[in-house]
Records
---
Amino acid sequence: MVVASLPQRRSWPLSSRTTYTYIRRNGAAIVLISLLIVQLVWIEFAIAPVLTKTHGSNGSKILDSMQRSKKVAIGAQSNSNNNNHRNNKERAKDNPRNMNGNNNNNNNNASNNKKMKISIFYNLYIGNATDIPRIQQLMSEQLSMRDPLIHTPIYITTIGTTIDNDTLDSFVYGNKAKKNDVVRLGHYQKGNELLSLESLWGYCSKDENRQDAVVYLHSKGSHSNTMENTQLRLFLTAGALSQDCANGLLPLATTGESNVRQQQLRQQRQRCNVCSTRFSPIPHPHTSGNMWAARCDYVAQLYQPSKFQQRMRRFHPTGSTPACIGRQRWAAEHWVHTHPAVEPCDLYSSKDFLFNYEHLPNLTSVGDVRRVLYGEGSNINNNEHGNGNGNAESSSPVMKLQEAPRFDLESFSSTGICKDTGVSTLDMRLKEARVLYDFTADGTDAAEAGGTGGKHPERIYKIMPKTWWGWKFFDK
């Protein structure tokens, strides 16, 4: 490579003959430098204002690209673009598509979501070494539903049998491991989901991550390999990793719209800070199977997971069981929906499945997820906003983002589970809000507000938000 050198500095003034000789000897360098200065001035003062005025945010992207081209060799830039195009084709061929129920507007949001960081926190349990091949297939199938441009990195906590890092990488990508996408948080001989939830909560509690979103998944069925666990695992993973949940959690500030347009979008869009395939408000607020996506600014308000199970011991209504309250091993499933600021949304529009395992859709593979939840004839969309996995345009009403709970109290009570225990009431929800987060209906200690009924008359509580889902749900 030839590098143009600058002329040596001379003392001034020079005679006209000396100046002529100087220019003649160094003319090539002077011409090159002059052209470079002209180009920089042209970009800065002529092109930038035009792009910004006529193309808005797209113009800024074009300008950024032009400015980057000043630092990157043209040949290298071309090779990079070719590699990106080839990688997109490989992703489309090798990875099952991300599960969606999108319309064209959501596809536009999908390109914005690439700016949004959605980390996955995965709780992996392996009982013994003989289970490794089965659990490897189980986990790889789950993560094949993610969009690698959005859902990254993957933070993994392992429990039970120890596996090395290479084996863990193969769980995520098979034989095509990308180690920079996998972060191993730690290994424990014994434990439960609260270990991974503690890491997720710690991540969201950091100021720099408050505008992020997270997905929580686990290897459901790794301990008990039943058909019901397989169905529930696929059912929940499809929602947690869906483009619909990602769009629902996307902060309006990242969409690049004007303030007026953002206000319009805020009125049109669903209120959502926790998204899952199904949110169930009874017998306690939860997602059966415990897989979901959530905004970090909400998660940071939750009770610390490692202390949550102990705290729930203070809430023990007479005649109830731990499963009906969300205590003991059911605490992890209850945790994410406990704060009064929760704005749940879900996707599954059918009343067939409400909670637990009753009437789950018949899912045994990712192919079944495509066929049953998103319609077998879904159009695969690989437009310029696509992620290479093939996002599906909406062709089935089965999976549709909506504020939750989407059905009334009578519908959810039809299962008969935890019936007559007294936990599926407004009174119980208000009392739990006081025990966990110091909220009552009106900020007082009155019994009808969820307080202790006068045991602490001097105490001032926080007031339950007017937007809390329970006001409407328990209205009757």
Note: Residues 43 and 67 are 8 Å apart (CA to CA).
---
Amino acid sequence: MADQADAPARFIRFDLDKDGRLSKEEFVRAGN
């Protein structure tokens, strides 16, 4: 169960990390 919750969070972090520009803006916009 903990893996499922970590999987999506890690995927989103990687996606934003690749951009490195909308990493914080997107995170804040997503409400996370």
Note: Residues 14 and 23 are 9 Å apart (CA to CA).
---
Amino acid sequence: MDDYSGIRVRLEKRLGELLERVEDIEDDLRGPLDADFSEQAVDLADDEALEGVDAVLRNEISQIRMALQRMDNGTYGTCSQCGKAISRARLEARPIATRCIDCAQ
């Protein structure tokens, strides 16, 4: 079995960063609207953009949590499609990878 402790540390660090960013976005989205109607329009447009960023971040959070779960249950580094090992280089480059490079293409 491979030692993925370095990758785990990177994933856990990234997860913490993402969770903080999502919390900041949620705080911004919960903020009150400006009393000025023209500013409200700008605020609503900004909120739409923030909601899009939030969705992307939440997707990455989900992928990281699944990768950490695969590490815990011993399936990390195994291609979910063909069952072969995912190369170490691929996992270093894309730690959330679930498929080997051949199956991913």
Note: The helical segments are 5-30, 37-73, 88-93, 101-104.
